[in-house]
């Protein structure tokens, strides 16, 4: 059975052992085009708010 | 007719000059003095450094743009300021030395009514033996600080990838080349872009990639870290940063002052006082920044550099420079108008202004070596400050010396930052972040120092789309194409 990427990385060293490592689902959503398009809209709205508060 | 001189044509200087020229019209003169013939969108240099963009894609010629804007362009570097004039005239002037336009090496004294110092930093490679010298980058490491440096880095990276394809293991070391560096973000972007490209080349298993940084904790970024609201939690940037490094299998050394660079090896001191060495086949280490070394003289010709500039070479402005312990630092220490306290017609913008103190907690090793990041003053804050200062100068020229000065405190402005972790319209990723305010205000936000409703971050493909779109948008704006003024800084 193939070792999951996070299993391999957790075991790599002590620093990685206590880190938060994304699993398969989180990784999938990071490059899922539909979900990322939704996030693109939301992030842009948030950034526009911060930019407008800063000028 | 008044004359405004802007020293520097980077984000702050270009923003200040172009807005000033637009607001002042042809009744007054705006002069830009910059040693460069090209404008560079520096955030995209990391993509040049991995061969995913050409240097031509991140630069353009300044002369036609300034010609269109009615700005007098002098391709020269500023050498000294005489804010009181000299024995023969009361008119303040700046002495410049040409670097191009067929007059390289020639000096000229240019008088001014107002001056904005937006020179940016000197890339102080000479601060670390082996990292470089007074002439710039050394032979052992690469850099992505300029488009030419990044182009060179891409060629060196390609050689390493070829070696790995032939079965030769390679070690990559990326980070900061001195204990007092800033701009960890650029190194952060570069290391993950390298990792992304090596992955794409199918040789990730042949590469050892390591981060070395002067930050005392991962995710400090010279801002003392930040807390973001995610999934109902308020989470430290440390958690996010450590997560990305663990996910990508990138090991790290933090709290490190690189004190020597040799062929294939760096020596460093850690915050606990211990010394170490790290070998590499390919290394990109950011140099520390310093002021560009402008001198200042009074009417009698006496050196008043210490009056106008801080010891690090950055210009003194309306900040509170009184030395005090970390516990007593306040948001109100940070400048609001960027006006020089001694000479009211002098302003500074972007990296060129002297911050009152760092933002991160000050750190020293038991040996007395200062190891802490210095404050970032690039990108969005640089542009906003440049515009505010230009606005102040234009009002002073048009309304007189009692005009209201515009304010842009980094303790009251936010910043949007997109840190690339790999380029690709379908498989790229970037960390999209906002921070509000840039300088934490612990009186207003006693816990994290920042407003967690407006401080957030997430990594994904959407972040990459935003960074890539910003690349086109800001180059479009800098070229003064139609509606450039509606694009925010």
Can you describe this structure?
The complex is a heterodimer of chains A (55) and B (489). Chain A is mostly helical and 55 residues long. Chain A has four helices and no strands. The radius of gyration of chain A is 17 Å and the shape is elongated. Chain A starts with a helix and ends with a helix. Helices cover 24% and strands 25% of the residues of chain B. Chain B is globular. Chain B has a domain at 3-123 and 290-399: FAD/NAD(P)-binding domain, CATH 3.50.50.60. Chains A and B meet through helix 1, helix 3 and helix 4 of A and helix 6, strand 26 and helix 9 of B.
Largest sheet of chain B: 8 strands, mixed
The rough form of chain A would be described as: elongated
Please write the string of helix (H) and strand (E) elements of chain A: HHHH
The number of distinct helices of chain A, counting runs of at least 4 residues, comes to 4
CATH topology of the domain at 3-123 and 290-399 in chain B: FAD/NAD(P)-binding domain
Number of helices of chain B: 9
The tally of beta strands of chain B, per DSSP, is: 26
Mean pLDDT of chain A: 89
Strand-pairing-aware structural class of chain A: mainly alpha
Low-confidence stretches of chain A: none
**Averaging pLDDT over every residue of chain B, what do you get?**
95
Oligomeric state as shown: heterodimer
- What percentage of amino acids of chain A are in beta strands? under 5%
Topology:
The complex is a heterodimer of chains A (55) and B (489).
Chain A: H1 5-10, H2 14-17, H3 24-31, H4 33-54
Chain B: E1 3-7, H1 11-24, E2 29-34, E3 38-40, H2 45-48, E4 59-61, H3 62-69, E5 72-82, E6 93-98, E7 107-111, E8 114-117, E9 122-123, E10 132-133, E11 136-137, H4 147-165, E12 170-176, H5 184-200, E13 207-212, E14 227-230, E15 233-236, H6 237-248, E16 251-253, E17 256-262, E18 265-270, E19 275-279, E20 282-286, E21 289-290, E22 295-296, H7 305-308, E23 346-348, H8 379-399, E24 415-420, E25 430-435, E26 456-460, H9 461-478
Parallel strand pairs in B: 1-2, 1-8, 2-5, 5-22, 8-23, 12-13, 12-20, 13-16
Antiparallel strand pairs in B: 3-4, 5-6, 6-7, 9-21, 10-11, 14-15, 17-18, 18-19, 24-25, 25-26
């Amino acid at each position: 059975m193939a070792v999951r990427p996070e299993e391999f990385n957790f075991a790599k060293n002590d620093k990685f052992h206590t880190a938060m490592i994304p699993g398969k689902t989180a990784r999938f959503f990071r490059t899922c085009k539909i979900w990322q398009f939704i996030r693109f809209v939301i992030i842009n709205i948030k950034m526009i708010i911060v930019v407008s508060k800063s000028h | 007719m008044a004359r405004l001189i802007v020293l520097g044509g980077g984000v702050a200087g270009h923003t200040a000059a172009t807005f000033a020229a637009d607001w002042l019209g042809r009744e007054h003169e705006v002069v830009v003095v910059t040693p460069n013939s090209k404008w560079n969108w520096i955030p995209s240099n990391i993509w040049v450094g991995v061969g995913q963009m050409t240097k031509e894609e991140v630069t353009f010629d300044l002369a036609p743009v300034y010609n269109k804007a009615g700005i007098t362009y002098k391709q020269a570097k500023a050498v000294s300021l005489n804010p009181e004039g000299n024995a023969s005239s009361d008119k303040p002037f700046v002495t410049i030395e040409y670097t191009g336009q067929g007059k390289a090496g020639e000096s000229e004294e240019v008088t001014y009514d107002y001056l904005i110092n937006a020179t940016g930093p000197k890339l102080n490679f000479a601060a670390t033996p082996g990292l470089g010298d007074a002439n710039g980058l050394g032979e052992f490491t690469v850099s992505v600080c300029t488009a030419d440096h990044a182009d060179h880095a891409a060629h060196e990276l390609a050689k390493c990838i070829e070696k790995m394809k032939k079965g030769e293991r390679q070690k990559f070391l990326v980070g900061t080349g001195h204990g007092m560096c800033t701009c960890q973000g650029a190194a952060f972007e570069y290391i993950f872009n390298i990792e992304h490209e090596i992955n794409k080349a199918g040789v990730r298993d042949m590469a050892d990639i390591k981060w070395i940084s002067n930050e005392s904790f991962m995710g400090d970024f010279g801002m003392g870290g930040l807390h973001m609201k995610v999934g109902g939690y308020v989470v430290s940037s440390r958690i996010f940063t450590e997560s990305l490094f663990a996910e990508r299998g990138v090991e790290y050394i933090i709290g490190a002052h690189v004190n020597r660079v040799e062929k294939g090896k760096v020596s460093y001191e850690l915050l606990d006082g211990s010394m170490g060495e790290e070998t590499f086949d390919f290394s990109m280490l950011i140099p520390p920044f310093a002021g560009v070394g402008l001198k200042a003289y009074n009417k009698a010709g006496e050196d008043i550099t210490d009056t106008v500039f801080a010891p690090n070479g950055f210009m003194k402005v309306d900040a509170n420079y009184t030395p005090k312990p970390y516990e007593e630092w306040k948001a109100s220490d940070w400048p609001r108008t960027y006006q020089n306290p001694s000479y009211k017609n002098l302003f500074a913008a972007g990296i060129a202004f002297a911050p009152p103190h760092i933002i991160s907690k000050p750190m020293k090793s038991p040996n007395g070596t200062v190891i802490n990041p210095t404050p970032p003053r690039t990108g969005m804050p640089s542009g906003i400050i440049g515009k505010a200062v230009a606005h102040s100068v234009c009002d002073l020229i048009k309304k007189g010396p009692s005009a209201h000065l515009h304010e842009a405190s980094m303790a009251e402005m936010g910043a949007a930052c997109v840190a690339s972790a790999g380029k690709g319209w379908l498989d790229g990723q970037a960390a999209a972040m906002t921070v509000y305010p840039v300088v934490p205000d612990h009186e207003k936000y006693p816990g994290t120092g920042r407003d967690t409703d407006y401080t957030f971050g997430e990594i994904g493909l959407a972040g990459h789309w935003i960074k890539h779109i910003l690349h086109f948008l800001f180059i479009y704006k800098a070229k003064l194409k139609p509606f450039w003024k509606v694009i925010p800084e």
